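Dear support,

I submitted the protein below through the web form. The confirmation email said the job was done, but the results page showed an empty box. After a refresh the structure appeared. I'm attaching both so you can tell me whether what I see now is the final result or a partial one.
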Amino acid sequence: MSATTAREPNRNPGGTPNAGAPDERILRTSPLRKLLARPELGSVVGALAVFVFFAFVAEGFLRASSLSTVLYASSTIGIMAVPVALLMIGGEFDLSAGVLVTSSALVSSMFSYQMTANTWAGVGVSLLVTLAIGAFNGFMLTRTKLPSFIITLGTFLMLTGMNLGFTKLIDDTVSTKTIGDMDGFAGARAVFASTLTVGGVDVKVTILWWLGLVALASWILLRTRTGNWIFAVGGNEDAARAVGVPVAKTKIGLYMGVAFGAWISGQHLLFSFDAVQSGEGVGNELIYIIAAVIGGCLITGGYGSAVGSAVGALLFGMTSKGIVFAEWNPDWFKFFLGAMLLLATLLNAWVRKRAEAIK
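What the results page shows now:
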């Protein structure tokens, strides 16, 4: 038997497929394979387990008002976890994401107050400044070839200092002046920090922003050429560049996506209270990354989903509020968060191995 024949047992000597041989181009993928291939599977299983657990141990956890509170806590993390997940799928990190939220709020507040302008002017300027910072991160990364850890750590330190320094320089204190009585404040609060009543239950508008970002990010990842570029860049940057993927533009766009999420979160922070503390946001970048990892994103890039990041944020919200409803000592929250991270990572690794084994 020739080598060619040995490699193609389903073909006749003329080279055409035998009548009984299935064409691999039309083989159907079983539902089990599709399920195991989903990056968010592990986080969904974990979320169900946490939900059932707190439903039993925390009195009042299943009340509509309690679930609304859980969703709100999840949305404040999820708005940032979605773009952070896309960035991680693209193979990069952003350690400045937490303080960038505060920077966005500070720019909006101080511009509006100092210029005595309509608060929407501050919102617009904040958007431009925040996107510029995201573009700066991406530009520095692609031009210097330094690890994103170093680039964004530098941005994190600079923003932390600028947030405090500029606030004290302009307002002589560590917090901004109140803008609650300025023109446009009520309209901006309605967009970024309002509360809707649905079926007698108060629902924060951030939940709608969160769900909208999940839908948009999922569409980008699964239905557009840009989504293919993101996975390609995160999986193998050199191979992606070799086949014509615009690596630099893709990464800059991903960092600007994180900046856009920071802008939304920053405006919510500002218009929820009408003033901002300059030291807020430090450490939140780790929470966003944790939510993305729990949701199935790999540290190495090239794998994950927007839905998974949403489930990771939901896990965070259920745990943080479930502990309160159960009347436990909240000092244990970080312990449970760390345990969830380890368990979710191990479960995600097991799911991937199972998915590869049955292909």
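Response: this is the final, complete result; the empty box was a page-load delay. The chain is about 70% helix and 0% strand.
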